[in-house]
Amino acid sequence: MFKRIGLLVLANLAVFIMLSVILTVVQMVFGVNFGTMAGSSLNLSALFIFSMVVGFSGSIISLLMSKQMAKMSMGVQMIDTNNPQPGLEAYLVGVVRHEAERAGIPMPEVGIYEGEPNAFATGASASSAMVAVSTGLLNIMNRDEVEAVLAHEISHVKNGDMVTQTLLQGVMNTFVVFFSRIIGWVVDRQILRNEDDAPGVGYYVTSLVLDICLGFLAGMVVAYFSRWREYHADAGAAEIMQSNQPMINALRRLGGMEAQNELPGAVNKENDSKVFFKFCMIFSFFFQNLYFTLSSENYSITSQKLSGKLMFFIFFALLNNGAMSSASKPAMPQPIGVTRKCSSGC
Predict the structure, then answer these.
(1) Active-site residue among 153, 195, 258, 297?
(2) Active site residue 101
(3) Which of 185, 139, 149 is nearest to 37 (CA)?
(4) DSSP 140-206
(5) From residue 16, how far is each of 23, 70, 282 by CA, in Å?
(6) pTM metric for this prediction
(7) In this predicted model, what pLDDT tens digit does every residue of 169-208 receive, in sequence order?
(8) Mode of pairing for the β-strands spanning 109-113 and 77-79
């Protein structure tokens, strides 16, 4: 878990550096002054550009880094698809190659990692995708169910779900940032009558509250799409396998465990670890916020403005999603029946 936390911190620092560079370039090239977008007068053009840069940057950068981050954080052992070892490696490569051909996409990278029943697809495009499956899934599912799960992930790649969700998340982030700051400016200037050149407490507090409220609504939209794409991937898996029964069997296994409330302990630990990830994101974006405060030519260093800008980046860190598509597939024991043999020691 600590390895994943460290990688997440580094990933967010990378986002912070890239976002800093992008905002600086935009200011220099287009002459946009972000430091005055919410001053005594509201600069809607600067605010919208700022909202777009912030809204899309984290999602796009996360998408570009998703495959490498997944390999490192999950400890994925890659299989040489051109020369797989006999047994499990050859079986997985054969299944993925066959399903990729049926889906009409390039052959993705294939990997195995130690962990609870799970599989995921990630990558910035179909030509750079990776499909990985856990040893837990291989140990408890039969061949048809494993192939259905892999077809489900192949369907994600075919549908471009990682890119689509990244763009949707960027759009949602943009509108949340944009409208929360417009309303925050109205409250600060028109209701609380702040006449200073810099935004006041009303702007920051209102923006934070609306970041949370509008972010919740935006999250519902993203969650709806995420659920829809899972159903769509299930249908795609049935189309690839030319039968819907294997996918139905896998889903029934998952539904049976949920009904009995017998989720594996590691799944609960994974959820707990996500809480730590959120805190790491908050702290990493604090340093990003500090940088912008120190570098803005129109902002003096005050605790009020530091805390106010920190509020925004807390929201940004909590709202930003990674681009790795994963679908947990716990099931009742029924081994795949393939001798496990990996040259990489997985």
Answers:
(1) 153
(2) no
(3) 185
(4) HS-HHHHHHHHHHHHHHHHHTHHHHHHHHHHHHHHHHHHHHHHHHHHIIIIIS---SSS--HHHHHH
(5) 10, 20, 12
(6) 0.73
(7) 999 999 998 999 999 999 998 899 888 878 888 988 998 8
(8) antiparallel
